[in-house]
Amino acid sequence: MWCSDDRDQCAAHSRVRYHSYHTMSLHTLRLSLLLLFIPAVTSDDPHVRGSLYDTVTLPCNYDISSGTIAMCWGKGRCTSMSCNDIIIKTDNDGSKVTYWKSNRYQLLGAIAQGNVSLTITDLIKKDEGMYCCRVEKSGPLNDLIEYIYLEIQDVEECPDDFELSTIYA
Q1: Which of 34, 99, 154, 156 is packed most tightly, with the most Cβ within 10 A?
Q2: Does position 149 have pLDDT exceeding 90, yes or no?
Q3: From start to end of the chain, where are the E strands?
């Protein structure tokens, strides 16, 4: 369209073009801001199975090139600022455990090397569900978050007659 033909149409076309560009820019800006505030989420094996009364380890590791840092494990999804239903957490420099909900929860890996895998002993059915490992990296909203689902399988028991027939056979 040539503006010399009809100045009103030309002005209207420019407003539409400006409005489309402006709307697209706002949409792009909003999407960029949203992506900026989503923490990094990784997990090699997001599903772990264990049996009742057994022990399992939920893996979580981070790069310690900048030193050890604070972390926590929670049951359920993490929020943008912390773990929900905190199970275990370390001090601000990540060197030692400062809180644990029960002695069934332990960090038995080499914490100083970034291994903050959660070991749960004496599994019960209530332990089943989503777990969140959150490593609090420096800077705004760039924490490392790993989600792992723990499935608890019932222990299969032998029938009473099987035990007797095996002994007296």
Answers
A1: 99
A2: yes
A3: 40-41, 47-51, 56-58, 71-75, 86-90, 97-100, 105-107, 118-120, 129-135, 144-153
